Structure formats: structure tokens, C-alpha cells
Amino acid sequence: MNKDAVLKLIYKELDHINDNNIDLKPETDMTTDLNVDSVSVMDLMFSLEEEFDVVVPLNDLADIRTIGELSDLVIKLKTT
Amino acid sequence: MTKFFDKFSHIKQIRSNFLEQSECNPLGMKIEEIYSPTQARILGKDCIMVGTNNYLGLTMNEDAINASCAATQNAGTGTTGSRVANGSYKGHQALEKQIADYYEKDHCILFTTGYQANVGFISAIAGRDDYILIDADSHASIYDGCKLGDATIIRFKHNDPENLDKKLARLPADANRLVIVEGVYSMLGDLAPIKEFVAVTKKHGAAIMVDEAHSMGIFGENGRGVCEQEGVEDDVDFIIGTFSKSVGTIGGYCVSNHAGLQDLRYAARAYVFTASLPPAIVAAASENLSTIQNTPSLRKALWHNTDRIYYGLQDMGFEIGPDKTPVIGVKMPDIEGGVRAWQILFEQGIYVNMALPPATPAGVCLLRCSICAAHTDAQIDCILVAFQTVYDALYGAQEEEEEASVKKAASA
């Protein structure tokens, strides 16, 4: 699975809430840098699930802080 | 040490903005005196209560009050113990049987609150290798029950059986899978498409739990909720209910035909490690449950009132929930507008709940109305007049501008 494709979709989904125009990178912390709220996280997960045909358990989200960690999770779920 | 509290700064900021905006803080109202199920004094003002969850007006049911007083005289003010220790009185067992009989189910377990019923049941029922699938707009008690348990938690789109179908299809068919939905959602009052959810769940061989907190007493010929109304009770594995809405007191329960439900008396920590309901509450719940069963006219009155307010608000132009239920969430343009609207209502002696994210879906600010069977036609007239004032204040100028621009364009 292509990590760039996952990152590209995450960037696209986060773009509309990136009010301060922060340069989105794998290291970007979604909570502290972007102040992403729970509703936006939910929408983002539904988009990722649809696009990559995976199910993202809520349990796995607790440890996710950066965009890179989220893309790694999606790839892990897709390949297991 | 104080850094512990830094994480609350965001919500604190919102609350302090409220205090700055409002002489009377909608999130911190103190009710000074209760006159009836629909009337109270707040900040020295007599108000019509339109934000209670007291759907059938049974908090002041004289039979329940008398039974409650007698139970206190007979058995004291509390049980001071868990159901698995010294807190299981004859009344608790009789009430469990009464609820099971009411639902025509084999088993019932009482919990001390509705919140604990969800947390206790959900955290215990599914283990490490099991899956729980929850509606995205689920109540906090459902989310908290999931968080306390060991199961894998999957969220599906709100009221979307197709999305649930996709999620179930991606899970191992031989695993235990429990789907959780609510009959009526507490903020917008929208109804779950329960037949479709049951069909999808059964297609995949999974189990389903329905939380009827805001639908029990309201829907169905006997008031058992949306599962009764939609004729799916036999296909629903577990029903959770509360006494703190239509039943007019406090407490929670789960009913089921699965004999294994009884095992939760040892496994559900929210059942084991808390004191049981006081005798007064058990007696009141029992009386009010009988009243709900035997008084269909209460439901008729509630629907009469709901019709008037739901269609009244809709005709005025307010954006409200998609389904007509006694929970009517009126969408506000933003928090500032919501506070203003709340104040206009309060000045006219109308009390509603103000609901803000994250308690609301899609991050909206709502004026949450809950309708009561005991509201009189005269009270409903007052409520509608007050909401018309709100509409004019919020949208009147905007509508005038729009009309003027249409006229200008037409004459150009």
C-alpha cells in the first residue's frame, strides 16, 4: 500500500480545518498543532475507511497524535 | 500541580465567554422552586419548563409520591450496600420482575442510574476478542462503557444502516459482535431506522442492543419504545432503559431473553461496586411504571403537545430535527445567537436547555426543548409566542434584507 496516497488523503481531509495554514507534514501533531476536534477526527476516519476499505477501531486512535502515525495505522490495518 | 487543569482551559474559556455575555448563565441555572412538572421559579422568575425530559409529567404523580414516602418510612432512606451484598431488598427484586413482565422478557437487571446501566452492561458484555459497533452520535454513557471494556470498538455513521453493513462485512463472522443504537437521539430527537438496523444486524449474525432512554413511555402501544412501535422487540437482544425521563425518577435497567444477562450481576462493575437504589426510588419507579402501562391518555396528551410545538416551530422557519418526537432540538446560527435566543426566551418566562458541542452532533449550538404531557394548551401558546420573538430577533432583519434585494432585482 502506498503511504503517499494515505498521506495525501489525510492532508486533503485536514485542509478545511487548517485555519492557520500550517504546513502539513507527517510530523504534524493533529491535537496540538491543528487543534483537531473530535467531530473532525470522526469525519477523517470515515473518509479513510471509505477510501482504503478498512475499519479503524476507536481503541487504536488513543495513541495517534501525528499525521504520520495515522497513515502508518491505516497501512497496518490494510495489511493485517 | 495546577498544570493538571490546563487541559480544561478550552472549555473554561467557552464557559467564561458565556458568563461575560449573559447576566444569567444558561449553563448554570439554579432552580429555586418547583411548582409542577411544567412550572418552576428561576432567578425569581416564574417559568414554563420546556427543558426537562419529564415527558409524561410523572415527577409529581401523587401515587408515586405516597408510595415513595411509605417506602422511606418502612425501609429507610437508603440501602447502604450493593445488590450483591446487603442492598438487594424485596422491592428491587419485585421491580425487576415488573419491568421484565412489562417488556414480556425473561430477565431484567436494575442499575442505580441509566448512565450506569450503559456503562455496566457494555463494559461487561463484550471481552477482548469481541467487537462492539456503535452509532457515531451515541450518548456519552455508551462511549464510556466502551472505553471501560476490553472489546474492539467500531463506530459507524449516524443512523446509517448501509455504513453498519459495510463495517460488519469487514469483521470476522465467527466473532461476537454487538451493535448499539438508541431509539431516539437525545439532542436532535431523531429516530433510529430501527427495522433496517435490526435487519442488517441479523443478516450478519450479530447481536443488537437498543437504548430506549428517550423513547420509553412515548412510543408503542404500551409505551415500551421504538422497538415496540416498529415491531422488532423479538429480534432485539438487549434493551436498556432509564427511570430519569418518562418514569420521572432515577435508575436504569437492562431487559433480555438471554439467560446470560443474569451473569452480569457478578461481572458488571457498575452493578457490583455501587449502592443499590434507595427504597423510595424503587417504590416511585414501580408506581410510575404502572401508570405508564395503564394510562395511554398520557401518551396521547404528549403527542398532541409535540405536534403543536414541532409544527409550530417548523412553520416559523426554525431549523429543527428531522423527526417529530418530544425532543426538539432547535438549531441556532452560532453560540452567540444561541445565548441571545436563550435570554429572549428566559425573559418571557420560558426555560429550555442550551446544548453545545461536544454534547451536540456536527458541532451545532442547540436550544433543546423537551415536551411534556402536562403542558397545557395555554402554556404551549406562550412557548410559541416566545419562539416567534426569538425568530424575529435572530432572522427578522436578514429576511427584510433578502426581501428588499429581491424587490430591487425585480424592479431593475
Summarize the structure.
The complex is a heterodimer of chains A (80) and B (412). With 80 residues, chain A is an all-alpha fold. Chain A is 56% helix and 0% strand.
Question: Could you describe the 3D structure shown?
Answer:
The complex is a heterodimer of chains A (about 80) and B (about 400). Chain A is an all-alpha fold. In chain A, about 55% of the residues lie in helices and about 0% in strands. Chain A is built from four helices and no strands. In chain A, helix 1 runs antiparallel to helix 2 (about 40-50) and helix 1 (about 5-15) crosses helix 4 (about 65-80). The longest helix of chain A has 15 residues, at about 40-50. Chain B is of the alpha/beta class and about 400 residues long. Chain B folds into two domains: about 20-50 and about 295-410, Aspartate Aminotransferase, domain 1; about 60-295, 3-Layer(aba) Sandwich (Aspartate Aminotransferase, domain 2), CATH 3.40.640. Chain B is about 45% helix and about 15% strand. Chain B is built from 14 helices and 14 strands. In chain B, the strands form three sheets. Chain B has a seven-stranded mixed sheet with strand order 4-10-9-8-7-5-6, with helices on both faces. A four-stranded mixed sheet of chain B has the order 1-2-3-12. Chain B has a three-stranded antiparallel sheet with strand order 11-14-13. In chain B, helix 5 (about 140-150) links the parallel strand 5 (about 130-135) and strand 6 (about 150-155). The chains are: A mainly alpha (about 80), B alpha/beta (about 400). At the A-B interface, helix 2 of A face strand 6 of B.
